[in-house]
Amino acid sequence: MKRLKEIREKLGYSQDKIAVLLNKTQGGYSHIENGRVKLDEESIILLSNFFNVSTDYLLGLTDEKTPPKITKEAEMLKDITPEQMQTIKIILQIPSSEIGEIRGYAGAVLNRIKKPFEEV
């Protein structure tokens, strides 16, 4: 894993220091950096936390050091029901010139069932 060496050197750590962290010898850690030995999942997570980077970055799967933050909207979609998803698909087909009417109707329904209307 060539990223390990890059991150370690950038932060000023020796191979010995990281080897101790992983409970390995310096030589054993050198084999990891050079790709001769693969790390187990637990060690990858430990190193990503230690270096404060994502596991994907450490593994070379992305150039983003930290994962993108989950937006409020994305968080809301986490628990969406199939019926709600179908409704969203229908709404996405409505021309933007007609969305105001849909929002007005949705607001009225929310008021009727006594739930606060929140802008998304």
Mean pLDDT: 86
Q: Which ranges are low-confidence, i.e. pLDDT below 50, for 5 or more consecutive residues?
A: none
Number of strands: 0
> What integer value in Å does the Rg equal?
24 Å
* DSSP helical segment count: 8
**Which range does the strand content fall in?**
under 5%
Overall 3D form: rod-shaped
Count of individual domains: 2
The portion of residues assigned to helices is: 55-70%
Largest β-sheet summary: none
SSE pattern: HHHHHHHH
CATH homologous superfamily assignment of the largest domain: lambda repressor-like DNA-binding domains
CATH architecture of the largest domain: Orthogonal Bundle
From the 3D structure, determine the CATH topology of the largest domain. Answer: 434 Repressor (Amino-terminal Domain)
